[in-house]
Specification:
single chain, alpha+beta, Aminopeptidase, 2 domains, 7-stranded mixed beta sheet, 4-stranded antiparallel beta sheet
Length: 389
């Protein structure tokens, strides 16, 4: 088989240009129409057949010598509601929307892999499904991809994610638990409005929300095993609009992140108990609603070992970076509940070019030298998995 890394490096300008085009025109989850059109444009140029799943998801196919064995590669394509602060020529043109997590890099790398794999199709010991998923950031639309894949003999699924805390040239490939499950919740509090000069005649939902927030942070430390990775985070408290009015209502938004079902249920029970107790304490009412749930990413050991060998083929023995599990979430876990597979975290950190801000930060950016590495690993894993699994 031809040298895959050389081919990826040769395609570097193409991959970078695509990544910048995606970055400049980001689209929020469920709104990725133009991003999807750009992907279809490139697939059409390569002569690769595809189907649209859901509104804007895409599953393309490269047929090799054997149609009875298939590997699926996946990239996510949606952006975040973040106002970009990077001083770059390809800065987001869409106010308040930004690719602050690398979902511009992922489809660019997968399209680069498409070029390589299409060229090598007659040497492939099987066929490849190339999946471009919308709405990953809100934990949706993976079902559209999985429904399409269910029609075919998929042996393994593989994904990549650029990783801003790991230096370019290094890749994380971890067996077993990698990323946490995430439960998004909303707390609605009903108080009683009043004039700010007469707080005794009202029930302040702001006081209730504040009490809930404080007690949540304390309870996790005292109720959950300190060695069990788990966290509960509040990201939004919203109530009122004037300094002299006690509002009727408040709402809070947050997440619970865990690795096991037992801990997830324990955290949910803790949250519900704290919300009810604090509401009753102030003569208010409150309820918890769960909005979405993302499965934990549990990498298959055999597939991860294949990916490690692929990485070794590309970059040598010193390219693998060891890592513990992280509490960030990725709905690739839903694929891993159906198929054996693994996700690779592609180092994209370069402090000399300010490519070291955390994911979801308004100054998030990647070292574009990481792009050929991700492209090559997509392609090399597909080739090796078709031969070994």
């Amino acid at each position: 088989m031809s040298n895959i890394l050389e081919k990826a490096v040769d395609a570097k300008d193409y991959i970078i240009a695509l990544r910048r085009e995606f970055h400049e025109s980001p689209e929020l989850s469920l709104e990725e129409k133009e991003t999807s059109n750009k992907i279809k444009r490139e697939l059409d140029k390569m002569g690769i057949e595809y189907v649209v799943v859901g509104d804007y998801g895409i599953v393309a196919t490269i047929e090799g010598k054997n149609k009875d064995k298939m590997i699926a590669l996946r990239a996510d394509i949606d952006a975040l509601p973040v106002q970009e602060e990077c001083d770059i020529s390809y800065k987001s043109k869409n106010n308040g929307v930004m690719h602050a997590c690398g979902h511009d890099a992922h489809p660019a790398m997968l399209l680069g892999a498409c070029k390589i794999l299409k060229e090598l199709k007659n040497e492939l010991n099987g066929s490849i499904k190339l999946c471009f998923q919308q709405a990953e950031e809100i934990g949706k639309c993976h079902d559209d991809i999985l429904n399409e894949l269910s029609k075919y003999p998929i042996k393994s699924v593989f994904a990549t994610h650029v990783w801003s805390s790991t230096e370019t040239g290094k890749v994380i490939l971890k067996k077993g638990a990698m990323m946490a499950a995430s439960e998004v919740f909303r707390i609605d509090i009903q108080g009683k409005g009043a004039h700010g000069a007469s707080p005794e005649s009202g029930i302040s939902p702001i006081i209730v929300a504040s009490s809930i927030a404080l007690n949540i942070s304390v309870a996790r430390a005292y109720e959950i095993d300190q060695l069990d990775p788990a966290v509960i985070t509040l990201g939004c408290i919203n109530s009122g609009a004037a300094p002299n009015i006690i509002p009727d209502t408040a709402f809070m938004l947050g997440t619970i992140r865990t690795f096991t079902e037992k801990t997830r249920k324990q955290m949910m029970s803790m949250l519900e108990r704290i919300v009810e107790f604090n509401a009753v304490s102030f003569n208010a009412t409150a309820k918890v609603t769960y909005l979405s749930q993302v499965d934990a990413v549990i990498n298959d050991e055999q597939c991860t070992e294949v990916a490690r060998e692929s990485l070794k083929t590309l970059l040598g023995d010193n390219s693998l970076e060891e890592s513990r599990e992280v509490l960030g979430s990725e709905n690739f876990g839903s694929y891993l509940k159906v198929y054996p597979g693994t996700i690779a975290m592609i180092g994209s950190k370069n402090s000399s070019t300010e490519c070291d801000y955390p994911h979801h930060h308004p100054k998030f950016n990647i070292d574009e030298n990481s792009l050929p590495i991700g492209t090559a690993l997509y392609a090399q894993y597909a080739i090796d998995a078709l031969n070994k699994l």
